[in-house]
């Protein structure tokens, strides 16, 4: 399998390479692609060194699959070119997610919808992925009426420069700022840019992508996305109202049986999900399950995942694995 990783020098791209290696994806030829400024640099993979090539050179090398994590602008221009050259593109940017002709895939939920005609496949937003992993089984059983979610998102969700800003501020070192305010010892109620309705793009991604992935435009949702001074791992407080009544123990049993979801919920031993625990893992962790005492048929829960892994790179590689297993790649 000739595999191209486009954006290989970025945070998500580097994790994609690690996960391809960890999961022993059958790579016969690796093509590492990045911006012109990175061309010629060497990247290690599987005990070998690979030189970074340009976007056009990546096409010329005829990859079978191209994992994109180079931003929406690059994806908009280059993903169709890679697809036209014969590659299946799995894109981690927001460029194609809401395109009605492009599948938005979380493998555990809707990979079965993929066919040989899907040449560009969209990877959902990191915050959306971990949320729908727990919402999907609950929606199937109880029917979701409304979701209110508040996120606590780590700086790696913004990228390497944000990670450096946090480190600089922690050490009181002058440096480039990617946020409009300090992030160290602070909480910023803004992820991505604001749109006309007063929400941010991140918040609207969660609304629109959830409806698309769960294939239900009737799910009502309100999101508040917040950046916190945590290096890695996103956390979410989720309040979900169902059409049908539920029992907490039944919810626990249901979530415990979901592949890729781990229940951590024991107040007596202070057991609940935290980003420190989720770092480096591929599961989505859920806990603090409790009934909303103010509203009928409503559940509160706390969901945490490594945003660079299941929230991005792992999900993309899982899509590629599914395509291979089904003979579509």
Q: What can you see in these coordinates?
A:
This protein has 329 residues and is an alpha/beta fold. It has two domains: 2-124 and 312-325, NAD(P)-binding Rossmann-like Domain (Rossmann fold), CATH 3.40.50.720; 127-307, Dihydrodipicolinate Reductase, domain 2. 32% of the residues lie in helices and 23% in strands. The chain has ten helices and 14 strands. It has helices at 11-22, 55-60, 72-84, 107-110, 126-142, 160-170, 201-213, 248-256, 275-278, 309-325, and strands at 2-6, 29-33, 42-45, 48-51, 65-68, 88-91, 103-104, 120-122, 144-153, 220-227, 234-242, 261-263, 284-291, 298-305. It has a six-stranded parallel sheet with strand order 2-1-5-6-8-7, sandwiched between helices. Strands 10-9-11-14-13-12 form a six-stranded mixed sheet. It has a two-stranded antiparallel sheet with strand order 3-4. Helix 9 links the parallel strand 12 and strand 13. Helix 1 (11-22) packs across helix 10. The longest helix has 17 residues, at 126-142. The chain is globular, with a radius of gyration of 20 Å. The model has no long low-confidence stretch (mean pLDDT 97).
């Amino acid at each position: 399998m000739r595999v191209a990783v486009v954006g290989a020098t970025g945070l998500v791209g580097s994790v994609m390479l690690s996960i391809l290696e960890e999961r022993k994806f059958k790579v016969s030829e690796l093509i590492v692609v990045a911006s012109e400024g990175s061309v010629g640099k060497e990247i290690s993979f599987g005990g070998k060194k690979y030189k970074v090539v340009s976007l056009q050179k990546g096409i010329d090398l005829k990859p079978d699959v191209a994992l994109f994590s180079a931003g929406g602008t690059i994806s908009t221009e280059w993903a169709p070119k890679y697809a036209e050259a014969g590659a299946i593109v799995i894109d981690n940017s927001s460029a194609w997610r809401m395109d009605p002709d492009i599948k938005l895939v979380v493998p555990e939920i809707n990979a079965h919808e993929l066919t040989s005609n899907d040449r560009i496949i969209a990877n959902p937003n990191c915050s959306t992925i971990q949320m729908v992993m727990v919402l999907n089984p609950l929606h199937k059983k109880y029917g979701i009426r409304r979701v209110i979610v508040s996120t606590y998102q780590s700086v790696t969700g913004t990228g390497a420069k944000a990670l450096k800003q946090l480190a600089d501020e922690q050490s009181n070192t002058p440096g480039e700022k990617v946020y409009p305010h300090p992030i160290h010892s602070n909480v910023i109620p803004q992820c991505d840019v604001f749109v006309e309705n007063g929400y941010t793009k991140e918040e609207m991604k969660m609304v629109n992508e959830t409806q698309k992935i769960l294939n239900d435009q009737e799910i009502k949702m309100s999101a508040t996305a917040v950046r916190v001074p945590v290096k890695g791992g996103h956390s979410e407080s989720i309040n979900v109202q169902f059409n049908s009544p539920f029992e907490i123990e039944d919810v626990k049993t249901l979530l415990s049986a979901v592949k890729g979801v781990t229940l951590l919920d024991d107040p007596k031993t202070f057991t609940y999900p935290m980003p420190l625990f989720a770092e480096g893992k591929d599961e989505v962790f859920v806990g603090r399950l409790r009934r909303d005492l103010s509203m009928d048929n409503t559940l509160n829960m706390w969901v945490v995942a490594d945003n660079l892994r299941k929230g991005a790179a792992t999900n993309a590689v899982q899509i590629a694995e599914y395509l291979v297993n089904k003979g579509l790649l």
